[in-house]
Amino acid sequence: MINKENAYKYLKELLNLDRSISGARFIETEEEYENLAIPEQKGTVCFIGRRALEGYHIKSNANSIVCDYGAYAIGAKKPDKSILNGESYALCGLYSNKNIAKSVVDSMHYSEKEIYGIEIGPFSKVSNADIVYIVCDTKQAMRVFQGYTYYYGPAKNIGFIGNQAMCGDILSKPLYNKDINISLFCKGARKYGAFGDGELAISMPIEIFYNTAYGVFMTVDPVENPKDKVKLSKRLEVSGIKYEFDMQASYGKVLDEYAKEIEN
């Protein structure tokens, strides 16, 4: 039977995701970090985030994260005023002036809470995650947002800039906004994360993830056609979940019947 506790399992099958659904947990103290018996991963936040999608359960801190701006975004390092006021961003050539650069920095919502490190891996191994994220194509993203909207209505805190994608769009913004976010990635993420041209990312706090995943399941009957429902049932069964969808249900059919009632 479908329930929210195995959401990571049935969402992966419903969406037919190629990569693991991943979780990230922010670690506050050095003691907790050192006692966490998993490998430490050196690299950019983009690369570390990708390793989780590949199935690796790892940790990183300020010493092992090699991109300062990624560490600033998630709170592992503290940025100075020249960064927060947009000076360094204005110099890089991505923005037309300092005011625009400052507005961009503000929109990233760098974590105000300093952390010692981050635990990241497949959601099945980071069940107490703060943030859950997936990498998918646009059709899969459509289904995720249909699931989100089933419970929460239109998303109100979507924000991305094509820069600092993994650290900003995927990790810090959803935590700040306590809401879902989407990222089209950035050059760094596509290089170090090795994401394809057609891939994007969706991220959300763990409490929203459960309802969103369940919403994806609840909207299968009205959205999917009978042929695809058969495929979905078979994929779920492989994962140990038995469920038969309603082959007669569709929101188009319901709307047609409603229109006939109004006409009469």
What keyword list fits this structure?
single chain, globular, 6-stranded antiparallel sheet, 264 residues, alpha+beta, 14 helices
Roughly how much helix do the residues carry, as a percent range?
Answer: 40-55%
Rg, Å, rounded: 20 Å
DSSP summary: helix tally: 14
Would you list the SSEs in sequence order as H and E? HEHHEHHHHEEHHEHEHHHH
Mean pLDDT: 91
Shape: globular
Question: Could you outline the blueprint of secondary structure elements for this entry?
Answer:
Elements: H1 7-15, E1 22-27, H2 30-35, H3 45-53, E2 58-61, H4 68-74, H5 81-84, H6 87-91, H7 98-108, E3 117-122, E4 131-136, H8 138-152, H9 165-177, E5 181-183, H10 187-192, E6 200-205, H11 206-218, H12 220-223, H13 226-238, H14 251-263
Antiparallel strand pairs: 1-3, 1-4, 2-3, 4-6, 5-6
Helix pairs in contact: 1-11, 4-9, 8-11
Question: What would your notes on this structure say?
Answer:
The protein is 48% helix and 12% strand. It contains 14 helices and 6 strands. A 6-stranded antiparallel beta sheet has the order 2-3-1-4-6-5. It is globular, with a radius of gyration of 20 Å. It starts with 6 loop residues before the first helix and ends with a helix. The mean pLDDT is 91.
